[in-house]
Write a structure and sequence with these properties.
Layout (H helix, E strand, L loop, with lengths): L7 H5 L6 E7 L2 H7 L7 E6 L5 E14 L12 H15 L5 H4 L9 H5 L3 E13 L3 E13 L6 E13 L5 E8 L1 E7 L8 H7 L29 H7 E21 L2 E20 L16 E24 L3 E24 L6
Helix pairs in contact: 6-7
């Protein structure tokens, strides 16, 4: 992006409104400049630059909503169908019918899918300003995105900014600065394993009520004490917190000079800094024993990783046009890059809750 090698996470964090062009280099043109890194092609992303003239400001806002198409979800049985099927099954097997099925009240018909999914809101706000003269030009933008998930307990937020400044002290020299920090946070209301909220909404029996008589959330063990326990999706959304905070930011500085016509020297120094922090919290409750994976105790898992990549690129380019028909381009360059990565994982269980 703007001459700086980036990874997928950084590239996808760019505000689309800041992009001027996207080009693809393939085959020899890619490997000649980027070596083995360009063997599968190179995507060149160029962000917008300011034009000389009067400063201007733009504001864009969009909003909407999303919801699951219930017709695309699994077709699950109603309670009457569920009870009839299992009565026939146990009769054919010559086994006693479980009391929860034999004693169904004829009224409870919980539509778990309808409870697990919701209408989710969407908001996107972008603000940008640019301007400049023959000496200095700038582009400054900010973007905020809020996307609720259609599953209960899921949420996504993104904050990003972009500053691009070019300064021309002389006609032959240009100095530039490019900053693109961003931050995202996401939340899901389930552990993200076998106990996925959407999966629970498909497998829970419709004869299971949402709440017990004492007002607490139900679970399949209430009906089938000896069977595999499946938790209530509403309980998952309320008591399980699986949050991820991440940041992938780009900082780039360059100097470009044209000492003689056709000869351009450019030196770039930049850094790509990122981190990811994931926290998973399970509250202490009898329902927290799910499929034998999570014990009946308060648990907090914390996973943290960070990466730093710095690059220094120096290029010398010579271009010459002969007789208005033939052109010659010679490019020589040197690149130095270093990548650092650290990670730390920790977990604590059965700790006291204060307050």
């Amino acid at each position: 992006m703007d001459g700086f090698p980036t990874d997928q996470q950084t590239a996808t964090s760019i505000n689309p409104s800041d992009i001027k062009s996207i080009d693809v280099l393939k085959d020899a043109s890619a490997t000649a400049i980027y070596g083995s890194r360009g063997s599968n092609g190179v995507i060149i992303i160029t962000t917008k630059s300011a034009k000389e003239g009067r400063a201007q400001m733009n504001l864009n806002y969009s909003t909407g909503f999303a919801q699951a198409n219930m017709n695309d979800l699994e077709d699950v049985a109603h309670s009457s169908e569920y009870v009839q099927y299992y009565k026939e099954f146990y009769n054919q097997m010559g086994q006693p019918i479980p009391s929860a099925i034999a004693n169904w009240d004829g009224k409870t018909d919980t539509r778990w899918q309808e409870l697990a999914y919701r209408t989710a809101g969407y908001n996107n706000l972008s603000l940008s300003a640019d301007g400049g003269n023959d000496k200095v030009s700038y582009v400054l933008s900010g973007n905020y995105i809020r996307q609720e998930g259609i599953l209960l307990g899921s949420d996504f937020k993104k904050y990003s900014a972009h500053l691009k400044v070019d300064y021309r002290p002389t006609k032959q020299v240009t100095v530039g600065l490019n900053l693109a920090p961003n931050f995202t946070t996401s939340e899901r209301g389930d552990p993200g394993t076998t106990a996925h909220l959407a999966y629970m909404a498909n497998v829970l029996p419709p004869i299971l009520p949402v709440y017990r008589s004492d007002g607490t959330y139900s679970q399949t063990r209430d009906l089938f004490p000896d069977g595999t326990n499946f938790p209530n999706p509403l309980y998952l959304a309320e008591n399980y917190h699986n949050s991820t905070n991440s940041s992938y930011s780009l900082y780039n500085f360059y100097v470009q000079a044209e000492p003689i016509e056709g000869l351009t020297l450019k030196s770039t120094l930049g850094a790509n800094i990122g981190y990811v922090r994931n926290n998973v919290y399970y509250s202490k409750n009898e329902s927290s024993t799910i499929l034998g994976l999570y014990p009946n105790q308060t648990t907090l898992n914390n996973n943290y990783s960070e990466s730093v990549s710095w690059v220094n690129e120096n290029t010398l380019t010579y271009q010459k046009l002969f007789n208005y028909e033939h052109s010659l381009t010679v490019l020589a360059g040197y690149t130095a890059q270093k990548n650092l990565f650290n990670s730390l994982n920790g977990s604590i269980s059965d700790f006291p809750i204060l307050g």
